[in-house]
Amino acid sequence: MFASLALALLIGLLHGPSLMAEGSAAGAIDQPLILSGQSPSVQDFIPPGHANFTVTITNTGTVTLQNVNVTGATTADCNRSDLGTLSPGQTTSYVCTTSGGTPVTESFLNELQVNGTAGVTTVSHTSNAYVKVINQDLRITKTPRFQSVQMGGMAFFNITVLNTSDFVMTLEQIDDAVFGECDRDPSATIALLPGEPFKINCSPNDIQTATASEITVIAKNADNPDSEPLIATDIAWVDVLSLEATLNPSPASIPEPGGLVTYTVEIFNTGSLSLTLTELRTTKFGNLLDPDNPLIESGTNACLSGGTPPLIPPNGGGYSCAYVAPVSGQPSQFTDTLTVTAVDKNSETVSTTAPAAVTITNVPSAIQLTLGATPSFINPPSQEVTFSVQIKNASSADSITITKIEDSILGNLDGRGTCDVPVAGVLPGFSYQCQFTAVVSGDVGDQRSRTISVEARDDDPVPAILNASDIVIVTFIEQPEQKIFMPSVADDNDPVIEPNNSCATAHNMFLNRQYFVLPPAVYPSDQDYFMFDLVQAGPVSIDLKNFVPQKGQMVVRYDDSTKPLPNCAKVQKRMSELALNNTMNLNLSAGRYYIQIINDGSSNITEMYELIVHVSAP
Question: Which of 29, 320, 367, 406 has the fewest CB atoms within 10 Å distance of its CB?
């Protein structure tokens, strides 16, 4: 190839450090950028004479540029020492000419470099325009004149040589200044008749930079081989489309089961043409530019363009936006991939991808075991006792599967009573309950204990094994227990039960007798009061069993001697655990006491609860 004709435009890419503009939700990344252009891109020229160029300079960045100047111009008149200041988005232009020099006789590429400063940073851009000197006898065209390809892609050219003379000519050489694939060095003589074309095509690949490539054809007059060679030229431009993107989550780590994560998108146009964003699509959350995207709340998606697709300037221009999305799952890497798609002015498409990962960390799981025995005080020599087992999933995130319930005396409780394992899918905060019966034997004063153990596993990919155990005790007492069954009616006007809505109307209880009562309606419309007397001080145990509403309170009260009796204004102890069965243990002085039962749960309960006051015989 001819070194003197090797004219190529290698447009430099500015890709400095990126910084999101403070306070901006979406928009251009804060950085200095400059862009230049010349017109006309190509001017056909019949020598002799002079060529004129209009040079346009635009600040395509987000900061003001100082000391804008033009250097290294092929046409000296196009250089400028100081064009002053350009604000973001501002454009300036001027006309320059070859008239100060010798007349144009050969084709040439007018290259120049524009520069500007922002603080200590200098930004530059190179542009060009072509002066094509017309040969009356020989023409060459290289099409398309403008095309854009993705970085690393392939360009396509059609090259036509035309004999415009009235004599036969022979082709000597076709030489491309940049793409050797477009060269032709005929080994056999190619003769062109007047008006006859010669066509070739070429496909250079792995295009890495924006390039202006000049092509030259040399021919001779076949009837006068010693005459001066005939030379014709043409030019074509290849622009490069290239995108880079990042997707950064914050926080990058969250505890299971997950939460809201802010993703920041940064996109850089590292090609040579401005690009319009058409799609920001993630594998997990769909297209971020779609206002009807059901996967992301529009109010937290700053990537929505508001009807005007973002335009990203070339040579390192950047765009940034952020959106908030829910991330959930088991302890693992929550991965997402962003695909950025954009188009240039020729509707050519370019895309790139950016991965992101959020680590979902494990939260330790736990279980709580609560045991009960009904009755917990029995008479010799033996009695059947119902034992209750409640296993609560105390985890904040994991569901659990109960795999084993064992009794220290009976062994595996699977299939005994209502106990049935395994139990899968117990959600956080929920419980599994079952009960079984067993005969307990002993003498007065004996305490019979048994240990119940539970094993479970959580739902993590590598399940954690959870264990809990507790002891339940049954005590033998001398005085036999009696049971009084109150009518199973919910009528507040029933003379047997009601009214017992205050301490003044409290129902009188016998010690060590079991009462069966329908739950009161929801507080404060209704409540149950019971009263019992102690003739001497000592330990007292109060059992509230099968309280189906669960939500509520059992309060033990006594009279305030400073006020008219009865008033039960003093609170001895309050129990408000959410459980089917509860036991309150007290050490009380001799006197009168009241039990207040409050229902904060459902009022549609037809199952009676059990209430008993245990007092050891003196």
Answer: 406
